[in-house]
Amino acid sequence: MSSAGHTPGSLANDFVNGSVSYWYRAAGFPESRLPLPGSLDVDVCIVGAGLTGLWSAYYLKREQPDLRIAILEKEFAGFGASGRNGGWLSAELAGSREAYASTHGHDGVVTLMRAMRAAVDEVIGVTDAEGIDADIVKDGLLHVARNAAQMGRLRESLDYEARWGAGPEDFVLLTGDESNSRIRVDKTVGALFSPHCARVQPAKLVQGLARVVEAMGVAIYEQTEVTRIEERRAVTTRGVVRAPVILRCLEGFTATMPGQRREWLPMNSSMIVTEPLPEDVLKDVGWAGAELLGDFAHGYMYAQRTADNRIALGGRGIPYRFASTLDNRGTTQQWTVDALTALLRDMFPAASQVPITHAWCGVLGVPRDWTATVDFDRATGFGTAGGYVGSGLTTTNLAGHTLADLVLERDTELTRLPWVGRRVRKWEPEPLRWLGVQTMYALYRNADRREAANGLSKTSGLARLANKITGR
Questions:
Q1: pTM of the model
Q2: What percent of the chain has pLDDT above 90?
Q3: FAD dependent oxidoreductase domain spans which residues (predicted)?
Q4: Which sequence spans correspond to the domains of the chain?
Q5: Alpha carbon distances (Å) from 215 to 58, 64, 208, 209, 210
């Protein structure tokens, strides 16, 4: 990609756009596994070797070691969002808690939120026990407010979390100075801190988990495209896999299956990463710990300081491609790179001359009501989990564990969680869903600009209109 038109030093000489993600550039791409050798019969067939599928296999095999499990993957394990995300092992659960409460009441949602917090430690415990080195450090999550309107949403968020069972140990209100003592973000007026989050190197996590389940006896077949899923059959370009249980674990790639284009919208999210920060810049930024960083803007950003002292920062970019089409191996648009770079430098002026070395994007699954689902139909043997709306790193663990319990016909606290068995209406046909998503994010971006430029003390009406369009 040309750097013409950019400020000097904005892109490193070896800048890469795409090639899946920076995480693989750092960790190294895995050796290719063999494809499906032909038709076969197993007990459980999992379509998709991302974290949902791998966690499902892990808990199934741990609880019933004699199960014959095959995972089918078009590319390689962790090719999708599992190897491209921001590395937030957080207790955040996207979607409407009111939607969950409509079927399981307030206490059901409180139980789900507690399960999410427990899942953070569950992932850390499994990686420790299984010897997976994924640069995990649990230093918590800091959401900063950078103007009066964002500060208002911060306070509303604190009250909202308290209504759903959070205690003072779960969320701590910080002043601007207290926040800057952790991470010095320009214009910060306050922040909300939660201890329930750990930094992760996503490629290391997903590849480590893939090696663990393979060692447990799970067969992972890569370069094996599933063309359709039928009752108790997964049809691939290399043969048919028959199983009494078929689990579809494709998240943002669900739209690639026939008839599923309108089920979960494949939303795009993009990231950039800097060169390692020079010592003087790192000292100025003050990011001594491994806290994760977010904000209260409508446009949404997420960041981490990597183990080798880079800033990796992400946001939505172009949120949706017409007709649910997907990116080309993580390549993102130049204007998205520019926008994320401008945001990084606005938040961290001291890092304004640190070059960007890599940009990439990935897709996440968004149901029409923006609320995740775990489902298993015992009559047909078909199960699925997903719709994590960008908060999937921890959620995949809890969802995969839940899916395993459902398959094994266990009545557990997990199988009684309110996201089990949810039914959501489909997205609108094109061009309506494209127009809706584009309009929604245009409104959010304009709301952010108005709040920052005009010193609004309340959330812009444009953002409230966007919320109505989303159905959130």
A1: 0.93
A2: 75
A3: 43-406
A4: 18-89+203-264+369-416
A5: 10, 15, 11, 10, 9
